[in-house]
Design a protein that fits this description.
By secondary structure, the chain is mainly alpha-helical. The chain contains ten helices and six strands; from the N terminus they run βββαβααββααααααα. Belongs to the AfsR/DnrI/RedD regulatory family.
Amino acid sequence: MIDTYVPCRGSAPKTACGGNMGLRFGILGPVRLWRDGAVVPLGTTKQRLLLARLLLEPNRAVSHDRLFNALWEDSPPKSALANVRSYANLLRKDLDHRLRAHPPGYQLAVEPGELDVADFNELVRQGRGAMSGDRYEEALGHLTAALALWRGAAAEDLPRTVGLAAQLDALEEQRYLAIEECARARLALGRHSEIIGGLRETLALQPTRERLWGHLMLALYRTGDVAGALTVYGEARRALDRELGIEPGPELAELHQLMLNRDSRLSGPVLGWRGRRPRCHRRVVRLRFTGRR
């Protein structure tokens, strides 16, 4: 990836404010609970599925039906309600009474600074604000810190049930959008060579992201590898045809033409080109975080 996002597997990542004491919840990677920096065992897969579903809507009541959907999809057993109560009771002893029944379901109380998703969203918000004000070094700091909170794929240790998949996919989309912004900040700062390897690695996983193809082309072009930049356009064209049956969008095609013409605008400190978002990207949603009630 463009930025290292695995701080230390098994250890508690620090919050956006730099602390890691008390309770800390993680879903940007394997589902985790830390207490004072130490991992708290979470028991069975079903218990972790329950915790994950509640963390996707912190401080909000999640109905039994939505919990059943996360744990058993469309085939909950007759004992589903009793089972959920049992899993909740097993989790509750480690959660300082944060988990409570809230008819018709359960609610998990989470304080600001305790949940990696909330910290990620806040850091990305700050980074985008800095980008819009052309404060690229500041933006890069925020975005790099946001990406460092990821320890792997969202809830990667759990089955991707119907009740979790859409929201986990939305989190992954936010992650890749942050990677795109991070690359754009580095391009604006003239740090072109830093992103080439990471962009190639990311595109191997996400071959339909035209913005990343464009960022890679620009990085190569600005390091003097014009032939490499033009070759990447061909790779992008083949990937889009193979994955989606489409040609590159007008923005990427225009960038290619500018490179063929050795246009002087490509050497400027900042390029306004942003590229087309991937055709197959999933809807991005922001998790609501209102603080403890």
